[in-house]
Amino acid sequence: MEICKKRSHTDARPLNTEGGTCMEGQRKIIAIIGLSGAGKTEVVEYIIERYGWPKVYFGEVTFDEMARRGLAISEENERAVREGLRSEFGPLVYAERVIQKIEPIIDTPHVLVESLYSWEEFMRFRDVFGSAFLVVAVHASPAIRYARLAIRPKRPLTAAEAWSRDRSQIENLHQAGPIAMADFLIINEGEREDLLRKVDALVRNL
């Protein structure tokens, strides 16, 4: 079984799309993306614990704004803030604020970016970081994701809420594009140990 697939490249190593050569040894900005319940947070937490890479989180922008407004944490409020910020400041507001968070830690070996959402954000990161920017998509079927979301201890979602979130992220935030264009794809539909083996294989290929 293939541990981790690199799209459009058979030896599973990232390409420098500008020069056509592998980027081994180059500092990288690595976005871990996926729909809710796919397992991206577990991947990020494991890499931080095992390899010590720093992380910036797109969701921090939402929570910072919710705290500023005095809003309770809920799916409805999070969605309203996400879409409201983009409506008020433009589609790149999250990308620009996260890039500001990356700048102080850019000298570390690699930086993880959790929960990049939109096509516009994806393109902005490509513009800023060039070939040092890589995307890892974590995927699981809706049925598996919704089952996980229903029992997670923090902010559980019903199937209807999970479907609504998926639809909002795909239709309003254009999240499908970055997932489709990811450099690496990790299928997370088995046991945790299987997922961690895939993550270790991915790290070795960076």
UniProtKB/TrEMBL annotation:
- What is this protein identified as? Dephospho-CoA kinase
Domain of life where this protein originates = Bacteria
**Family annotation (Pfam families):** AAA_18
List where this protein forms a coiled coil.
none
